[in-house]
Design goal:
Elements (H helix, E strand, L loop, with lengths): L7 H5 L23 E3 L6 H11 L3 H17 L7 H11 L4 H20 L8 H7 L6 H14 L9 E3 L3
Antiparallel strand pairs: 1-2
Helix pairs in contact: 2-3, 2-7, 3-4, 4-5, 5-6, 5-7, 6-7
Amino acid sequence: MVDVQPNADSSQNTAPAAGVAVAPQGAEAPVAGRLTGLTMKRRGPAAVWIGLPLITLGVYQLVWYYKILNELQEFDRRRVLKPGGSVLVLIFLGWTLIAPLISFRNTARAIANAQRAAGLPVTCNPTTATLLFFAFGLSTWYMQSQLNLVNDAYPGTAPGTEVALVA
């Protein structure tokens, strides 16, 4: 192997990597360039897990799933989530048992990313969310509890309020 050392001329003419924003020297980064997202709605984990799905014969769980994925997408727009596709997986492939488990695992990862973006320690574990699916469907309770932690990072903000993301 040959080690290539940069010469003095190449180190002075380097351009920034593609997609990297460079602020002018002596100027601060503009506020408009900060990462922002919209806050999510705080929901009661027990109501999401047993109350409303029982009253609506399970329909609310699909509505809840769509809503949280849509809110996660709006909170951190750097992540691409497809709420409609995830709900369709639950509706049409729920009988396979594997597809819903993968979908719940991916949702738990999105929640962990939201916690990271809010500057919180990541406490949402995708494996825990997947395993709680088998314990009376407690994965919905767990995921909503973890989402509420993200909401608690922005006290006093109404759902849909624009907030700054940390990471």
